[in-house]
Design goal:
By secondary structure, this protein is of the alpha+beta class. Helices cover 48% and strands 27% of the residues. It is elongated and about 70 Å long. The two termini are 19 Å apart.
């Protein structure tokens, strides 16, 4: 997620420099629609920069995205600007066969041919440690966690 956020911030910054050059060398800055476009760019760029800060990672801990109740694993995804979440997607814990962890990603495979993926603001080690605390010893034996 960090690499994606960095690329998005770079793309939005490049778009902003094009807008800046247009405002310097043309009279577009006097047009209301162009001022609105600049304001929209500022909003999107601030969202991209916010996602690169440690404050973003602190506010979006793993327990916000991966939760469980007695029988289900609930997965939430980060959507939109700033800290909006969407979900949950849920799987019955007894049907989970395998969980694959990567930096910033989690894949959950179910015996019912269902696969869920979630982008997370965490490293593989952090995700594995959180999953270790989330499941019981019996559940850890039946679920392959990689």
């Amino acid at each position: 997620m960090q690499k994606i956020n960095q690329r998005l911030a770079l793309i939005v910054a490049c778009f902003g420099s094009v807008l800046l050059l247009l405002s310097l060398f043309t009279g577009l800055f006097q047009q209301p629609w162009f001022v609105f476009l600049i304001a929209l760019w500022v909003f999107v760029f601030s969202s991209c920069c916010y996602r690169l800060t440690s404050f973003f990672k602190t506010r979006n801990s793993l327990d916000k995205f991966i939760q469980r109740d007695q029988e289900n694993l609930l997965l939430f995804t980060l959507t939109g600007f700033f800290d909006r979440t969407h979900g949950p997607q849920w799987l019955v814990i007894n049907t989970i066969e395998k969980i694959q962890c990567h930096d910033d990603l989690l894949y959950v495979y179910s015996s019912k041919e269902r696969q869920l993926s979630v982008s997370l603001p965490a490293t593989k080690a952090e995700i594995l440690a959180y999953l270790d605390s989330l499941f019981t010893a019996r559940e850890k034996q039946s679920i392959l966690i990689q």
